[in-house]
Amino acid sequence: MLIDLHTHSSASDGTELAADVVRSAAQARLDVVALTDHDTYAGWPAAVDAALELGVGLVRGVEISCTHHGVSVHLLGYLVDPEHPELLAELDLARDSRETRVERMVAAMVADGIPITLEQVRALAGDGATLGRPHIADALVDSGIIGTRDEAFEDLLRNGSRYYASHYAPDPVRAVQLVRAAGGVPVMAHPFANGRGWTVGDEVIEAMARAGLAGLEARHRDHTPREQAHAVDLAAQLGLFTTGSSDYHGTGKQNVLGENTTDPEVLAEIEDQARSGTEVVRA
User: Fold this and answer.
1) In what residue span(s) does the Polymerase/histidinol phosphatase N-terminal domain sit (predicted)?
2) Is the Cα dihedral 128, 130, 132, 137 positive or negative?
3) Which of 122, 124, 220, 236 would be a feasible disulfide site paired with 138, CB 3.0-4.6 Å?
4) What is the edge-to-edge ordering of all strands in the sheet holding 32-35?
C-alpha cells in the first residue's frame, strides 16, 4: 500500500487544484494521499469528490505554520474538526498575517525597482489561495526576473534577505495542543531539514511531545540520511511514530508524489488517535 501524507494544492502554495492533486495521486498509483494545505481547509470538498470518484483514500489535513523564537516550525494536523473554533481562529489569523506579509514584501521589491505588482501576485495565486512567498516567486518568474521558484528562494525570498518579512505564527507547543483539542493528530513536518534554514532543538520537540505530538515526518527529501536517522532515533525515544511524505506542490517544487511513503500501520494509528469525527475518505 502506497501512502503519501503531505501534499499541497492551489488552495495554498501548490500549483494544482485540490481535485487535480488527487488525480495526480491516482496516476502515481497511490492508495492514500493526504491534502495538507497551509493554514486552510479550502481544498477539502473538491478533494473529497475526486477521491470518491477515483477510488483514492484521502486523509484530510492542514499544515500549520508555527514559530519558536524566530525559527520556523511546520505542524501537520490530520483529521481535525474543521469547525473547531479555536483552531479555526488561529488559522484565520495566520492567513490574514500572510496577506499583509506579502504586501510588505512586494512593496519593498517595488521600491527597489523590481517590476512586479501585488495584483500580479494575487492573480497568479488564484481566488481564495493562502498567499505566501511562493506566489511572489511565481510573479518573479512571470516577469522574467528569475527562472524558477527555487531560484527565488535561494536569493530574493530567502530567510534574512532584504525583502524578507515575518508573519504571525503560533508557538508549536500551542499548535499541538490546538490540533489535539480539535480531535486531530499532530505530526511535525521535516523536523531536521537544516538545508531550509534554522531548525529547533530536540528540547522543543520534547516539549511538543509532552503536549501531545504524535509523530515526526522522518522520510522527506529535505532530510539528509543523518537527519532522517536522528528523526527516527528521537521518535523512538519519545514514543512517537514516524511518517514519510513527498511534500508535493505540483510544478512548484521538484518533489514527486510517493517519493517517500508512510507505513499502513502508522496510518491505522493516526485513525485510531483521531477524535474529531473527520474520517479517512474511502470509496
Assistant:
1) 3-68
2) negative
3) 124
4) 3-4, 32-35, 57-68, 71-78, 185-188, 215-219, 241-244
